[in-house]
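Handout, section 4.2: multi-component inputs.
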Amino acid sequence: MKRSKQLFKLNDKFKLNDRVYISLFKYGVSIVLFILLGSLLIMSQGVDPISATRVLFEGTFGSKRAFGNVLRWTAPCILTGAAASVAFKAGVMNLGIEGQVLLGGFVAGVLGAFLELPPALHILVCVIAGGIAGMLYAVIPAVLRLFFNINEFITTMMLNYVANFLTQYLTQQVLAGGLEVWGYVNMQATPTIQKSAVLPTIIPGTSATLAFPVALLIAFAIAFLYKRTIQGYELKQVGENLRFSKTGGVRVVRSFMTIFLLSGLIAGIAGGIEVIGTYKKFNTGFAAFYGYDGISIARIAELDSIAVIIVSFIWAVLKAGSMQVERVLQVNRLTVTILQYIFVLFVAIDYAGIYNRYQDRKIKKRIREGEL
Amino acid sequence: MNKMDYAVEMRGITKNFGTLTANDKIDLFVKRGSVHAIIGENGAGKSTLMNILSCVHLPDMGEISIGGKKVTLRNSLDAVKHGIGMVHQEFMLYPELSVYDNIIYGFEERKLGVFIDKKACVNKINQIMTSYNLSVPLDSLIKDLPVSILQQVEILKVLYRGANIIIMDEPTSVLTPQGIQGLFNAIRFLVNAGKTIIFISHKLKEVLEIADTISVLKDGKLVKTLPAAQTNEYELASLMVGRDVILKANKRELKAGEILLKVENLRVKDKDKVERVKDISFEVRAGEIVGIAGVAGSGQQQLVEAIFGLRAPEAGSKITFDQKDVTKLGPREHRMMGMGYVPQDRIGSGINSKGSVWETAIMGYHIAHGFKSKILLNFKQIETFTNKIVKTFDVKRQKNSDSIRSLSGGNIQKLVVGREFLQDNRFLVIEDPTRGIDVGAIEFIWDKIIDIASNGVGILLISHELNEVMQLSDRILAMYNGQIFEAGNYGELTEEEIGLLMLGGHADEAF
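Output:
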């Protein structure tokens, strides 16, 4: 009995003091592995990794245009990252961000092209309508989860396909009027939006638009929600211990619904902003990477919305830089994409658990050998 | 006695799960060709001990001998090799497969090394069935059969695997009285044929009927092993539920007020649609402590969940709180009306183990009492309320923003109890308030409970410690198998008398 008590004391002590080290260790190991693997992949294409890194930074911080490009990519990363982390934090596995982005983008594209409104109002209408479209699309998995007990893990993922083909159908068959009418005209996109709906740039001559400050604002709002408000407190508790919250009197069903809607809203806004800010029209399937980028970013940032901003920036540097590396050094830009996702895998490893198990075994062995 | 006469010898078996010591240096000797019963409350360590014998778990310390030879069991195949078979409480059968497939699965007779020799398998099964007087339809699907047949399938399965020592974990809990007699006949037949049976249960009557030897476990320790012929229900009951150290509470005179909680004809089913609370009625007055004593799993959990609005009762049930019908209301409404709840499962329901001390401390408080703002968290108020709990209940912590996992189990318990006690609630449902905490803290929490009741708060106390219920309650109810029985006012009945009611002994005769 005495021995076993000692065993737990040792374990407890370890768990408390070393958590910070484990975090440092986790990111440290991931970054080292990332650099090693990255160098290998780049070298395998006959390029020196150091010059590749130099080109990557030239392509991102080398000029005003390049930096604007980084901010242009940071915005959707923050938004989808926020949409994912807001959901995951409350225990809702919304994997349907891609679909919600697509619907938001489609609605914004259509309203941008066909409505006639004064400039500022037109932008506002497009963004808000896009957000609502994403939100309504998230109602489907929410209802399936709450009233039919179907795991959102599967429904949201499947609904991504539905969104993809639905918007594609609407673009080609309804808006473009089908094959007979348009013949050779580009049918992969809705008509270009009107000037009044175009999101203005914040750095002239670059592709950095108002999307960046809006994304920052939303990320800060989410951080505020979770850190300062009662609703946010309840949502966090629901995500971390459902039974605890239920016993404590939190309306769990309502919380789930709120989260689905909020996550869908942010994703929808992301889609709307991308369409009116960057592409100026809705391209079918444009969101292919957006959903999983957001999920990956949220995972690396450990669901903290402020960390989401930082991770999104790094993500955007890699994204924008990889294109420059491809242009200058003929390194396939997918190399960087591969590395980005491998980094997520490294971060996802349960280092604490591995270390715990190792310690446990060591202590047990010492007990068996009669040292304790 | 000759050493070879023991089928199983377990020495110094110790097993820890996290901070819980499920088995603490247990010595168990089982005679060959006998029925050896192991009794104890849920959580006493019976199943862990048997899982160690059948290699579901490896022990942290201790050694096992089978048939006089010391063995090291590494995995469940080792256990099968040494002739140990276990009939689990939850049947381990594939519902979509036939009885035949379930029996041979993993231990098929083979042709040419790769093909199943169905004829040989069927012959072997039929031979076992005739020699042990069992009969099951081999071609039926498991999902189409009643539980009493499934149990025979499980027994047949372990016999097919060549078991000489058969462990049965709570085998009667799923059976009807007729089914139980059938099972007992089968057990007697098996023993006569030279098999050894280890029978796990917490039902005393059955144990006395079937067992030759009885071992009592309590809190992970072996209390006593005694021959069934030389004991009775009274002795077993006090061994099972009695405490070594009897603590004394400073009980005050009862000043009962108006009826606060009234439960009428309450029936509750669990998630498997099994009725766990069977037509219960009782009431609790302001200032009164009503204690419910019972062996774990007698339906207390479902009763409490229904009262607090966590589980919907069956139609016809009625729960009134403060003259309002609350049968269909949820926990939020209960809290708003001034009902507090200390859950038994403090890690699962009492705290958020991923969060901080204050996050756990304000749960419920933030709804029923709230902050000055309806939207924002008021960190000053949070700090004040958390500090109040910490101070009044002597919770050892460094900062309110510390991770709650840095607190010991006893301090977590004090935090949860304090949270519910300091909210000016008018009624408290308290489950096992002193589970797993040290003696000093137990007396402290007891004093608080008596204190709070004397201020006019109604208390429903559900505890698995009989002594706790007896020390604190003005009125005692014994719960057994989903029903409650009046067990007298404070100090009226002895521990043995209440213990017997809790274990279903003489229940019908007594009332």
